[in-house]
């Protein structure tokens, strides 16, 4: 297991900031192609609650997002300017006209100090045109594809209405490895999904590790993002919570799961995230997820033990 900051430092040789952008996509799980209503936890903004306005041109979104980063780090001792990774985060950022989407990725990469590209998507939304366009980009730039998986338990997958299967995920990882071994794949998992046991959760971690390692060269790495499920307003999960049919993990339960999950990660696994960042204005529960400072300090302790 490797720290994200060390990984990005080794790739870019400088401090790196991820900036959230919106390619204007929707999701096949919302527009009726695969499903309607989305995953039961997904907010109306499609997991990109921090991205700059979707109606703005990409160049403008990049400038706004860079300004936001600079306003946060300005005056902080030890912080310095660096490079940016353009992160297309909202909904399914490979779902749409391939030419238009590739144009947006290139536009972001042409902006000053943008050194890499990250694209969040679903495993069933990587058609050959998009994938070959991303493979071409990866010849000259760092490219990261983030795949939602959330769980390897198919029953839970159906319950949360994700509308894709483990096979879709296995296929997507294999196709990315084949198209461009340099592309860094990051898989998203959620702990605390309804009805999941500790064994389900640890099995999901084992599954991601085993699929990610298959086809990787020995020097290559893969990434993982883990978060505890949180409940946002106006989602089916919120209705379940209000009806007393779902309780989120406590901080202690989440940390205890992480303590068991982290030792399952091999040395070439980059841990991109272990905490969610729910928008406070939409968050219903659990409240502990907003206490970022304390969580990050506690996570540091966990990472040192693993
Ligand atoms: S696949 Fe992603 S964007 Fe689509 S509904 Fe599920 S969480 Fe939201």
Description:
- The protein has 306 residues and is an alpha/beta fold.
- The protein has a single domain, classed as Alpha-Beta Horseshoe (pyruvate-formate lyase- activating enzyme), CATH 3.80.30.
- It contains ten helices and ten strands.
- It has helices at residues 4-12, 58-73, 98-109, 128-137, 154-159, 166-179, 198-213, 236-242, 251-261, 292-305; strands at residues 2-3, 16-21, 83-88, 114-121, 142-150, 184-191, 222-228, 231-232, 269-273, 283-285.
- The protein has an eight-stranded parallel β-sheet with strand order 1-9-7-6-5-4-3-2, sandwiched between helices. The protein has a two-stranded antiparallel sheet with strand order 8-10.
- Helix 7 links the parallel strand 6 (184-191) and strand 7 (222-228).
- Helix 3 (98-109) packs parallel to helix 4.
- The longest helix is centred in the N-terminal third of the chain and has 16 residues, at 58-73.
- It is globular, with a radius of gyration of 18 Å.
- The model has no long low-confidence stretch (mean pLDDT 91).
- Residues 27, 29-30, 38-39, 42, 46-47, 91-92, 122, 148, 162 line the site of iron/sulfur cluster (SF4).
Short descriptors:
10 strands, pyruvate-formate lyase- activating enzyme, two-stranded antiparallel ribbon, eight-stranded parallel β-sheet, 18% strand
Would you report the number of β strands?
Answer: 10
Q: What order do the SSEs take from the amino end to the carboxyl end, as H and E?
A: EHEHEHEHEHHEHEEHHEEH
Apparent shape: globular
Give helix % range.
Answer: 25-40%
Q: Describe the largest sheet.
A: 8 strands, parallel
Oligomer: single chain
Q: Number of helical segments? A: 10
What's the number of structural domains?
1
List each distinct ligand once: iron/sulfur cluster
* N-to-C span: 8 Å
CATH level-two architecture: Alpha-Beta Horseshoe
Within the largest sheet, what's the order of strands? 1-9-7-6-5-4-3-2
List low-confidence stretches.
none
Class inferred from helices and paired strands: alpha/beta
Write down the overall mean pLDDT: 91
* CATH class placement: Alpha Beta
**Rg value:** 18 Å
β-strand percent reads 15-25%
CATH topology: pyruvate-formate lyase- activating enzyme
